[in-house]
Automatic annotation (TrEMBL):
Cofactor list: Mg(2+)
Protein name, per record: Mitogen-activated protein kinase kinase kinase 7
Residues that hold ATP according to the record: 44
Record PROSITE patterns: PROTEIN_KINASE_ATP, PROTEIN_KINASE_DOM, PROTEIN_KINASE_ST
Annotated source species: Anopheles darlingi
Gene3D superfamilies documented for this protein: Phosphorylase Kinase, domain 1, Transferase(Phosphotransferase) domain 1
Highest rank taxon of the organism: Eukaryota
SUPFAM superfamilies, alphabetized: Protein kinase-like (PK-like) (SSF56112)
Catalysed reactions, semicolon-separated: L-seryl-[protein] + ATP = O-phospho-L-seryl-[protein] + ADP + H(+); L-threonyl-[protein] + ATP = O-phospho-L-threonyl-[protein] + ADP + H(+)
Domain Protein kinase stretches: 17-273
Compositionally biased region (Polar residues): 300-320
GO biological process: immune response; JNK cascade; positive regulation of canonical NF-kappaB signal transduction; positive regulation of MAPK cascade; positive regulation of metabolic process; response to stress
Length: 385
């Protein structure tokens, strides 16, 4: 099986690997923390010969990438029964663990925005690759790893990555983050990753698992197919909310490119401070339950044909139009970084984006190409906590 290794992938002798502990399960096998050549590594073993294709896929794609927000491949072993990938070890674990596993560490809005921006940077790199752009297809917090005390994010699990030119009809990925065109069996593009990213952005801000009240993957897919989305969060800054809503649009053509997402996020992240502070020094109180305690109506958060203007006659914080009601959580969920955000976020936010990006109204009005007014008060504020 050595012949399957792409050029430039180091063939690793299994005897050089000193196993330490089982870390978890990947898309096709067990992940082990180990030592190799005096450094800690993650070793992903293939456990079923039927999963050989996923192994070859991951080796092939990881051998093509080199980006600070994508996990690094050191090499591979292809001698049965020790078929494995040897990769960079992420000592901070997965983003999913930080968000949802108890005890839950406190993190700032700056961390949430930074994680989302770094994820977008890595995905934009994949989409812009030559000669064959790539689509990840399985973006979700369990596949986003953290290093450097939780401040640096790395994308992993490339067993489902595909070349952009490939026709894709398989229902790969995870239902809560999956774009509707994927599970519908339609031809889809890199915009499916943009949809997944929008759900991730909601998740790091709300600190809630999307659609966690729905029991089955099929039920989630049906609701998403009908247009349901996670509930919008009261007091979420409008530029963030509207970017999120654009990304999870039902129509892929209405979603921004990941390059545009990166440009917008670079501007927004300048408004927050503290992204380089270590995660884990402070833990949320055990009595803070992570639940927004609400049911989704069948037509909640319909993403198409919606005028995202707040109904000024309503005290419930909903957003209305002729066809649907977009549900809004009455306050930030317990554990959300928005609970500790400075009130300065109620002040105006100006977002600078690159001139080549399409004008986007992130709030009240577009001023001119490259500069956008997000809210309507006078701007004289320092970066937000």
């Amino acid at each position: 099986m050595n012949s399957v290794l792409p050029p430039f992938v180091t063939a690793i002798d299994i005897d050089e690997i000193e196993q330490i502990a089982t870390v978890g399960k990947g898309s096709f096998g067990t992940v082990i923390k180990a030592k190799w050549r005096n450094k800690y590594v993650a070793v992903k073993y293939i456990e079923d010969i039927s999963e050989q294709h996923a192994f070859i896929t991951e080796v092939s794609h990881l051998s093509r990438v080199a980006h600070p927000n994508i996990i690094e491949l050191y090499g591979a072993c292809t001698e049965m029964p020790h078929v494995c990938l040897v990769m960079e070890y992420a000592d901070g674990g997965s983003l999913h663990k930080v968000l949802h596993s108890r005890p839950r560490p406190v993190y700032k809005a700056a961390h949430a925005m930074s994680w989302a921006r770094q994820c977008a940077e890595g995905v934009a790199y994949l989409h812009d690759m030559t000669p064959r752009p790539m689509i990840h297809r399985d973006l979700k917090p369990p596949n986003l790893l953290l290093v450097n005390n939780g401040t640096v994010l790395k994308i992993c699990d490339f067993g489902t990555v595909t070349d952009k030119a490939t026709l894709m009809t398989n229902n790969k990925g995870s239902a809560a983050w999956m774009a509707p065109e994927v599970f519908e069996g339609s031809t889809y593009t890199e915009k499916c990753d943009v949809f997944s990213w929008g759900i991730i952005l909601w998740e790091v801000i709300a600190r809630e698992q999307p659609f966690k009240h729905i029991d089955t993957s099929f039920a989630i897919m049906w609701r998403v197919h009908q247009g349901s989305r996670p509930p919008l969060i009261e007091n979420c800054p409008k530029p963030i909310e509207q970017l999120m809503v654009r990304c999870w649009s039902q129509n892929p053509a209405n979603r921004p490119s990941m390059k545009e997402v990166v440009s917008i996020m670079n501007g927004l992240c300048k408004l927050f401070v503290g992204e380089n502070e270590p995660i884990g020094d402070e833990i949320l109180s055990d009595d803070e339950e992570d639940s927004y305690g609400m049911d989704y109506p069948a037509d909640s958060n319909m993403s198409e044909g919606t005028n995202y203007g707040t109904d000024s006659n309503s005290s419930r914080g909903t957003i209305t139009n002729r066809n649907s009601t977009i549900q809004r959580i009455s306050e930030a969920p317990k554990g959300s970084p928005l609970r500790n955000m400075s009130s300065a976020m109620l002040q105006p936010i100006f977002v600078e984006v690159n001139p080549y990006d399409q004008p986007v109204d992130l709030g009240s009005s577009a001023l001119h190409t490259g500069t956008f007014l997000a809210v309507t008060h006078h701007l004289k504020q320092r970066p937000m906590q």
